[in-house]
């Protein structure tokens, strides 16, 4: 076992001086143990502390309970300070632990922010993730090149180069726009900041436990305002611009069609897509209507036992059609 990490700070708040990956994980375990009411003893002696934190059900339950408390997200929220410090450890495994709780944190935050409640604790964590992504992308937009018949295929020879004009330029689609540094969260920036955090979540989603994805599905139903099982759905409805809707739908798509099928997750994601589709129709949002309806239809086809028919195959028949 290595030596305990040093801590320093002012004003009574400790700040961890991160070292090697094992020391970082052990420091995160020790600091979290001081916050939770009950801490599983085996985590203190784990040889892979970050991975153990990620998958421990007792830790997940207690952190979820703390994040849902009425006073969570305040400026003196110790759990938010732990999430902030842990993400700034720059250790990918510990950052994954923070991302594991992002759907719940973002869900509580967006629901309460719609009521104009100050939530600096939540915002500090979201800004830390946003700043990380801004630096990683260099502020540049994420684009993809769309095939264009004006350009030759890479699999064929091009004997005469196409004329250079505006119509023959590469057709680039912007997946996510460029990012600018932000030190505060304003109402106009909120969807973009949360959306960027969810994009990072999606990029690591295959490593995140199912319980975290179920949290997102539950909040999608609440945010849509069209959840028949919740009488207070209207009060919880939030604004869903495309910069927030897009990463949410990508996550729901993973939940529906992930390689390792999970029945509970599939059903939760399917219900969430139906609610989001109803919301898109209510808002007359054509882009969201197309995306959500496509997910719903694909999920219905996946549930259909006869959906494995290959319609590109010619039918075998003894009749000749003239």
Automatic annotation (TrEMBL):
UniProt KW keywords: Cell membrane, Cytoplasm, Membrane
Alphabetized Pfam families for the sequence: Hyccin
Localisation: Cell membrane; Cytoplasm, Cytosol
Domain of life: Eukaryota
Gene Ontology CC, one term: cytosol
Sequence similarity: Belongs to the Hyccin family.
Protein name: Hyccin
Originating species: Salvia divinorum (Maria pastora)
